[in-house]
Design brief:
Strand order of the largest sheet: 7-6-5-4-3-2-1-8
Shape: globular
Order of helices and strands: HHEEEEEEEHE
Largest sheet: 8 strands, antiparallel
Low-confidence stretches: 5-25
Number of helices: 3
Radius of gyration: 15 Å
Distance between the termini: 14 Å
Structural class: alpha+beta
Mean pLDDT: 79
């Protein structure tokens, strides 16, 4: 039987899985929220992760002090922090796309190891948004909206 700490850690990067999977199906932008990372990586996110049903595998590794590489079911992404207006956000770049494609997520990592990561809602930040500046304007305009972000799915850290 798994401890409550392990179960809480199960969600640590699971929301990344949902975000990246949704990224492949939608919420795709031609530019990042921020051109450069806004903070160094968080080493607590590094490691191997598996979805509760065991069907999806994800590995998060350090590329450098400010970028992660995420391997999800054979696809690679560069992920970095794009904090904006005190909101912890990440930008995920699909490394297999012919031209740069990005997805945006909010995140919150609790002291208990629980990470809440949710995609930016494409109804409030539409896929046809044209610039990073416009995304930041729309984020700021919708900060109080309960619909700004979608929900995610847990992943369990492999031992």
């Amino acid at each position: 039987m798994k401890s409550s700490t392990t179960i809480k850690q199960a969600a640590v990067l699971g929301f990344v899985l949902t975000a990246i999977c949704a990224f492949l199906m939608g919420c795709v932008y031609d530019f990042p929220i921020t051109e450069k990372p806004t903070r160094p990586i968080d080493s607590r996110l590094l490691g191997n992760w598996t979805s509760p049903d065991g069907k999806s595998k994800m590995k998060v590794v350090k590329l450098d002090d400010r970028n992660y590489i995420v391997a999800l079911d054979g696809d690679l992404y560069r992920v970095y922090h794009s904090d904006f207006d005190k909101i912890p956000l990440v930008t995920a770049q699909d490394l297999s796309a012919d031209s740069p494609k990005y997805c945006f997520c909010s995140w919150k990592l609790g002291d208990d190891g629980l990470l809440m990561l949710r995609l930016v809602n494409d109804k409030l930040i539409p896929d046809d948004t044209k610039t990073s500046r416009e995304v930041r304007r729309l984020l700021k305009a919708n900060l109080q909206s309960p619909d700004l972000f979608a929900e995610g799915q847990p992943m369990i850290r492999d031992k």
